Amino acid sequence: MQQAYADVAKLLKQLKPHLIDSGIKETRLKMPGGAIQIIKIKKYLAIFDFINALLNGPEWAAVQKAFKLVTPERWKNYKLMSITGLREQEILLEAQKDLRAAWDGKKNYGKRPAFPFNRIIKIKNPGDSEESNL
User: Fold this and answer.
1) pTM (2 decimals)?
2) Average pLDDT over every residue of 45-67
């Protein structure tokens, strides 16, 4: 389970900055904590496959292409100085909008698999696991 958790977290780390920039709250992208071992492996596999498909899809390729139009330092400066409306920014925003639509399950990949993002998972009683809920 730890390896599956680490694999999902690694993939999500690549997408996270652009998903946040596209308007998704960071809390919706936080990996679960607590008793993660009770999350069924099929949940990890489903979200892993979904994120992997996004990273290999045209939306992510468009984000990467747009981001490479200028240096990372320039993107930081645009944000720091509140510069908006430049063509490269508009291209990146449009690409991120498409990426967000794909993440939200509105485009190309079907509905995003259920996964307990931003949850602390607890086992209530020693004999009563939440496994059936996850």
Assistant:
1) 0.81
2) 93
